[in-house]
Write a structure and sequence with these properties.
Length: 344
């Protein structure tokens, strides 16, 4: 038996050393150490040995098995190293070759316009305020001088979730919440960007969901001239230094007096299809904060005054970039979005 085990060891070690690849080496492992291999068969037959022979034979079998295992592992390390060297030689990489160009995206045009407006007003001392899109009726309407039953509510085409809960129709509720936090003490100087929702039929100029950014200034001795100067700076920043603005009387329940703000058309007043021959383009609504709104927010309207304005980023982007259909902003057409890539 000892001679047989010694012969098996020499034979297995020789075959392991002669193996040309990992598959051949694994075949040697299975042939000698597998469940049906000769070493295993010797172990199975140890039950037939006497009690004195069994420990001696068991120790010998372990020595043989460890010698074969060691020979196989040594050869495996050698074969793996050779395989790696061969692969490196065959698959060499020229690190001097230029890399493949990576296509970069860019900010969405609405994001770009929003950030540009934010940067302008932050530079003028405003802070950015945000609020919930699912809003209470009180903040969306009542605190803005629009009590229940007010006819101007019908102009908003509101999505109601419950009688007192709705999808906000403008970002003005953020102004109300901010004024309440100030507890009647000024100054307040904020802009409020965000999504708003109205029951509009989607077409080239309308969407049931769109973006809005509003501004609010409350303090002592705030005048209409402050509002006009602010909006004039905005128009020149967004549309060009040669643009002018004009204010037309209008009506909003939360401002008094209220105005519609027009920007001079890029045609220079000659009249074109964009301005419909008028030389002016309507861009936003504004006005002096209504005393009732100030009082409901806790401000003394005999001491404090303020102005507010609101605009849609989609309309600003359409005018700024010459986009003729608001739906382009939402359909994710790469042909459209690539025009606003970082490489423009």
């Amino acid at each position: 038996m000892e001679e047989q085990l010694k012969q098996l060891q020499d034979e297995a070690v020789m075959k392991a050393a002669a193996a040309q690849d990992l598959k051949e080496l694994n075949d040697v492992r299975v042939a000698y150490l597998g469940k049906k291999g000769p070493v295993t068969e010797v172990l199975k037959g140890m039950g037939r040995l006497s009690a004195e022979e069994r420990p001696k034979m068991g120790a010998l079998v372990n020595v043989v098995r460890e010698a074969i295992t060691k020979a196989i592992e040594t050869k495996q390390v050698s074969l793996e190293s050779e395989a790696i060297q061969k692969q490196l030689a065959e698959e060499s990489i020229d690190v001097t070759l230029p890399g493949r160009p990576v296509k970069l995206g860019g900010p969405h045009p609405l994001t770009r316009v929003t950030e540009e407006i934010e940067d302008l007003f932050i530079g003028m001392g405003y802070t950015v305020a945000e609020g919930p899109e699912v809003e209470q009726d009180y903040y969306n309407f009542e605190a803005l001088n629009l009590p229940k039953g007010h006819p101007a509510r019908d102009m908003q085409d509101t999505f109601y979730l419950t009688p007192e809960l709705l999808m906000r129709t403008h970002t003005s509720p953020v102004q109300v919440r901010t004024m309440l936090k100030h507890e009647g003490k000024g100054p307040v100087k904020i802009i409020c960007p965000g999504k708003v929702y109205r029951r509009d039929s989607d077409d080239a100029t309308h969407s049931h969901q769109f973006n809005q950014i509003e501004g609010l200034v409350v303090g002592e001795n705030i005048r209409m001239s402050d509002l006009k100067g602010t909006l004039d700076a905005f128009a020149k920043k967004m549309f060009g230094p040669d643009r002018e603005i004009r204010l037309r009387p209008s009506f909003f329940p939360f401002t008094e007096p209220s105005v519609e703000v027009d920007v001079s058309c890029m045609c220079g007043g000659k009249g074109c299809s964009i301005c419909k021959g008028t030389g002016w383009i309507e861009v936003l609504g504004a006005g002096m904060v209504h005393p009732n709104v100030l009082e409901m927010a806790g401000f003394d309207s005999t001491v404090y005054s303020g102005f507010a304005f609101g605009m849609g980023q989609e309309r600003i982007a359409m005018l700024k970039y010459g986009v003729d259909d608001i739906r382009h902003f939402y359909t994710n057409d790469l042909r459209f979005l690539q025009q606003f890539s970082v490489h423009e």
